[in-house]
């Protein structure tokens, strides 16, 4: 497993890495993450200096640029608390990607240490805090997106467990769920044809089961799929997992 | 401008895409069902197989001399070819020494890699492909587009047309007729041939046994009809012990073609010995390096574990949309995106775009029977391309972004400044990446800094 060597969670305080996408576009997702964690009695600290996990340059092959950003991130998230991220992709960057690009760097140990206390949100709730079900009510048929960067982690089973336990919510399966949606970071702009084709295929499978909402542990995939669906003139309703968990506490879908 | 593979995919005719997509999807789904129905924990088996192969490639200095000794003891002759050219010449020498002019060939990827058939034809010798798919590739002067199913990109109407052109009978696209005609044609070739050439899926260092898997039985014909057997094999095909084959063969058939075991599995222990009724009297094993030791010395050596099952091609969303020819290489798909640039040696930049043709979704790693971390290797090759300053069309520059993302004050200013995209038509913003994004997708509203405001208002002081 990608993130098998994590430090166990002891305290009730975490640092939030909001992600650059939530910082720029999806403030409500970051806010929902805070509310969900606080509902569980967790104190959430937001280190103001945070920017981005460094993944765009890492994936682009510019590891020197990426390492600059990762070093900044390591400094920003100093401490011992778990770092919680509402994104399987940025979390995987911290515990896997960054480790890879620091293999031969003198500060590899610091990067590895940050990775071991970094968690994707659903994984943190279920496996970090031991919370296995979610209260509240949420009347909706929900299809769950499998973010590719959650492969080899506990994110999808954790998200399924949480969503599946919410009163009123039913999870619907769809075809080829394990196939990538075609976002892939800069892939979306350097391979625009392939990216759109993959996205259209995903939308076809999702529309075939007509869920009320398409829910993902990552906003990046939803930004791509939602944007594609909207440009086609056939929008789908997309929600981040954190929004569903928060709204369940408040009685159901909104926004 | 988009990348070459993206452009190729955009030009690919819809029926080609449909046939590649359909058959890869079907094989992949059958494979997954088979593995999970039959094994309690197929992932553990994949990890074990990966460890066996990793051990083998890391200890080639022990196993290669060992296998050479075993092979010689069994009566086979052993040749070492450091380049593709040297391997081709070794084959030519063996044929000339015997006065042989006609070869029948089973399917081997390494012979494609070194372009053996073309080389031999250039020297006036005949080399006939006997695997049905490879035979069709050969008569069409085409290239395989899949490592297990070379003609996955062709439909039977195209094949029937080729057969008619080659004088193999009037147009008929019934698959059974096509197969019968090929069989009939090839039967004469087997009988006339002086040399049979095969690859090897595995070579056991313990026993010197050559292991061959096929579904058509054509490799058996190649050996039954000829006096001289040439085995062309990459040096990475060694496994330490015979019993390791139990793990690897169980995974190969299931991963590659969704079969418990391929129809034919041959274990060849050397040329015909005194008292044995049949089999080639002469056997040559040519071990091909052709860049592999360089790969072994690189930080991508795990790719040498590959057992050429094709599962990573079948699951890959890019391969499914773009087809194998998009990769301009004998080895396409995820494995090819790693291996093909590496085998280029000095000319790596010519194929440095291949590792970029991936969303890094990781599906290939998840299905690989020898657990090769393909996405990690793709990333390492991207880093190498950047270090070697290979131009990359359409890739946004990361320097300015890193400058922003390493300085919180500048970052925050940018968060506020980004709002401008809410007020400008995207067409007017001269950022190529943004244009490429917006060609098919809407942009969400810019709300830079809103969360930070919310967080501050909610609780003070924050850390
Ligand atoms: S890389 Fe793995 S999945 Fe791909 S062909 Fe090789 S063994 Fe099969």
Summarize the structure in words.
The complex is a heterodimer of chains A (255) and B (463). With 255 residues, chain A is of the alpha/beta class. Chain A contains 12 helices and 8 strands. Chain A has helices at 20-24, 27-39, 55-60, 63-76, 88-101, 108-116, 121-128, 155-164, 187-190, 192-208, 219-231, 241-249, and strands at residues 13-16, 43-45, 83-85, 118-120, 137-144, 167-171, 213-216, 238-240. Chain A is globular. Chain A starts with 12 loop residues before the first strand and ends in a 6-residue tail after the last helix. Among the domains of chain B are: 39-290, Rossmann fold (3-Layer(aba) Sandwich); 405-457, no CATH class. Chain B is built from 22 helices and 10 strands. Chain B has helices at 4-11, 14-38, 42-58, 60-73, 84-98, 109-113, 116-122, 132-139, 156-165, 175-192, 218-224, 244-257, 292-297, 311-315, 317-322, 333-343, 363-367, 374-387, 399-405, 408-417, 432-438, 450-458; strands at 77-81, 102-105, 126-129, 195-198, 202-204, 210-214, 228-234, 238-239, 264-268, 282-288. In chain B, a hairpin with a 5-residue loop joins strand 5 and strand 6. The radius of gyration of chain B is 26 Å and the shape is elongated. At the A-B interface, helix 1, helix 2, helix 3, helix 4 and helix 5 of A face helix 1, helix 15, helix 17, helix 18 and helix 19 of B. The structure holds iron/sulfur cluster (SF4).
